[in-house]
Amino acid sequence: MRILVCVKRVPAPGSRINVTENGLNVDTAHLGFTTSPHEECALEEAAQLAEQHGGSVSVLTVGPAEAEEQLRYAASVGGNEFTLVLNDTGQDWDPQRTARTITEAIAQLEADSGVFDLILFGNESADAGGYQVGVRVAVALDRPMVNGIKGIEIEDSSLVANREVDGGLEVYSLLTPAVLGVKEGINLPRYPTMKGRLASKKADIQVAQIEALPGPQQLVRLHRPEEKVTETEVLGTGPDAASRVVDLLDELGVL
Amino acid sequence: MSGVYVIAEHDRGATSPATHEAFTAAAALAANLKELVVAVFIGSFDSDFEATCSQYGISEAVILESPLITDYGPEVWGQAVAEMVNLRRPRVVMAVGTDKGNEVLAQASARTETPFIANCIQVEHNETWSMTRTQWGGSLLEDVSVEGDLIFVSYAHHAVEAAASNTQTDLTVQRIEVGIDPSLARTLVRERALQAEGATLSTASVVVSGGRGVGATLLSGKVGCSRAVTNNGWRSHADQVGQTGTRIAPEIYIACGISGAIQHWVGAMASKNILAVNTDPEANMVSKAGYAVIGDLHEVVPAIAEEIRRRREAV
Ligand SMILES: Cc1cc2nc3c(=O)[nH]c(=O)nc-3n(C[C@H](O)[C@H](O)[C@H](O)COP(=O)(O)OP(=O)(O)OC[C@H]3O[C@@H](n4cnc5c(N)ncnc54)[C@H](O)[C@@H]3O)c2cc1C
Ligand SMILES: Nc1ncnc2c1ncn2[C@@H]1O[C@H](COP(=O)(O)O)[C@@H](O)[C@H]1O
């Protein structure tokens, strides 16, 4: 089974997200970077499927040269082949351009080494949250696609995928080649092992350049939503505060 | 190009509360653009849709039908909307940004090669489209401008409060038989499985996070947690509050040993009251909470539980 996972490098902000002075980027001067959580789970799912059913896990990202870090991380948790499509504009491309770029990258990878039976995306990227790149790629490739997936099983040449809805699950079955958008909670991603860390150092990362037509969306400005300033009432210190806490619960009528 | 076409979300016929939000947002946007609202129903549904339309002042509805649309399917729904776009040439196609709302709009916009802007909180048109949308699950806003005649937009879920309109309307309904490639039936829902019933994390009136339930059962609330806890496998992801977990809105949220990272905060900020229990008086959760106890949760939480028990027994 050939599986491809598309991941995105995103900053890991702490208690608030700061914006650069020109308003065009998140201020990452003091931040680390990570892979979007849904995509971390997509990667774990791919690694598990490849372990259970045989096969390989390819990982693709569109981003700055530094996104190599996320591909090396992927190598430490089960990835086998890595492609970085460079975007050195210092800004995210709009979702249509990102989707076209990924579609073209997939066409090239498939021409070289065969069709991917399964392509995994995150349900949405952690930063932009455009809710569309995976769907656009699937439509361009004319492959079945369902988002919001919390479970994948393989039955012969078809996949059974679960999606969580209010109070239950919807079950989909798809013939491969197929595309799925995965949500955090589908599994518990592993931590890199010693062996994984070594593999990540040796991983061969293919860097590609792809020219795709930009879409019509233009970022104007990032800004923070209005913050409510809260006066915190400290009810006490240590266990002695219990009585005032229970008074409060009583007042709120939740006891 | 004319009309604001709003997709009604429904589960096998029953319109969802998100649809009422969508109808409310559509009315405001249409008034702004001097356009009419057209409600779009896909597949077959209960007959009360007419009442729902008139409740929200909608005078025109289209029903997209095909023998292939027997249930929800992202591709058949998306293709149905794309076909309708080709027939009707709307100016805006919109929905509420639930998972399915966003999925159907993404499918339809991909099939018509048009832009889709997800989770907007404001949409305007002057020479170009300009909208404000949410990033980072609502922690950050993005102003974006978009060129083009037709756009797909979703409104951030819960950004608009559903409000029925008083205008009396006569509803005209047109049924449109949409041509759908039979191969797209490949992603119809095949079956459904029922999960837990009763109060869920998102509907509970008390949520206690972090400190393993000690207080939660006593308050008949729900236990939540942060991603640090799920990542360690201490609790299931179903309990996670935040951007990639559940958004909660309880009467009171008790956050024990939680620092209040922005991705956790967006899931908790709709709580009516917040009590933070933390050893660090400077923790973000403490400064954002209305109430705080500074101390070790392992001492504070049992003391609260004990106090509740004591008062109950005294009654
Ligand atoms: C894209 C993205 C999405 C994310 N989505 C989510 C999400 O949905 N939900 C989520 O929760 N996180 C999410 N995170 C992770 C988030 O950034 C934080 O890492 C996480 O919320 C931290 O969890 P925590 O507060 O439990 O741990 P920490 O940040 O480590 O905080 C621990 C807190 O406990 C206090 N403490 C320690 N010991 C005690 C004690 N004995 N008594 C009382 N207080 C004590 C400390 O003072 C500190 O404030 C996401 C991150 C990213 C990058
Ligand atoms: N720059 C990128 N590189 C690789 N994959 C991406 C990129 N942007 C988005 N994706 C994938 O597309 C999914 C949906 O992204 P979005 O449409 O931004 O919500 C993400 O979860 C990723 O799997």
Summarize the helices and strands and which ones pair or pack:
The complex is a heterodimer of chains A (255) and B (315).
Chain A: E1 2-6, E2 9-12, E3 32-35, H1 37-53, E4 56-63, H2 68-76, E5 81-86, H3 95-113, E6 118-122, H4 133-141, E7 145-155, E8 158-165, E9 168-175, E10 178-182, H5 194-202, E11 205-208, E12 217-223, E13 233-237, H6 242-251
Helix pairs in contact in A: 2-5, 3-4
Chain B: E1 4-7, E2 10-11, E3 14-15, H1 17-33, E4 37-42, H2 49-55, E5 60-65, H3 74-88, E6 92-96, H4 99-112, E7 116-125, E8 129-135, E9 140-146, E10 151-155, E11 172-177, E12 191-194, E13 206-209, E14 222-224, H5 227-231, E15 252-256, H6 262-268, E16 273-278, H7 284-288, E17 291-294, H8 297-314
Parallel strand pairs in B: 1-4, 1-6, 4-5, 5-11, 6-10, 7-10, 13-14, 13-15, 15-16, 16-17
Antiparallel strand pairs in B: 2-3, 7-8, 8-9
Helix pairs in contact in B: 3-4
The structure holds flavin-adenine dinucleotide and adenosine monophosphate.
Give structural notes.
The complex is a heterodimer of chains A (255) and B (315). By secondary structure, chain A is α/β, with parallel strands linked by helices. Chain A has one domain: HUPs (Rossmann fold), CATH 3.40.50. In chain A, 29% of the residues lie in helices and 31% in strands. In chain A, strands 9-8-7-10-6-1-4-5-11 form a nine-stranded mixed beta sheet, sandwiched between helices. In chain A, strands 2-3 form a two-stranded antiparallel ribbon. In chain A, strand 4, helix 2 and strand 5 (81-86) form a beta-alpha-beta unit. Chain A is globular, with a radius of gyration of 21 Å. Chain A starts with a strand and ends with a helix. The relative contact order of chain A is 0.18. The mean pLDDT of chain A is 96. In chain B, strand 16, helix 7 and strand 17 form a beta-alpha-beta unit. Chain B is elongated and about 65 Å long. Residues 211-215 of chain B have low confidence and may be disordered. Chain B has helices spanning 17-33, 49-55, 74-88, 99-112, 227-231, 262-268, 284-288, 297-314; strands at residues 4-7, 10-11, 14-15, 37-42, 60-65, 92-96, 116-125, 129-135, 140-146, 151-155, 172-177, 191-194, 206-209, 222-224, 252-256, 273-278, 291-294. Chain B has two domains: 4-187, HUPs (Rossmann fold); 206-314, TPP-binding domain (Rossmann fold, 3-Layer(aba) Sandwich). In chain B, the strands form three sheets. Chain B has a nine-stranded mixed beta sheet, sandwiched between helices. A five-stranded parallel beta sheet of chain B has the order 14-13-15-16-17. A two-stranded antiparallel ribbon of chain B has the order 2-3. Chain B has 315 residues and is an alpha/beta fold. Chains A and B meet through helix 3, helix 4, strand 7, strand 8 and strand 9 of A and helix 3, helix 4, strand 7, strand 8 and strand 9 of B. The complex binds flavin-adenine dinucleotide (FAD) and adenosine monophosphate. Flavin-adenine dinucleotide sits between chains B (226-228, 240-245, 257-259, 261, 263-264, 267, 277-280, 283, 296-298) and A (12, 34, 36-37, 126).
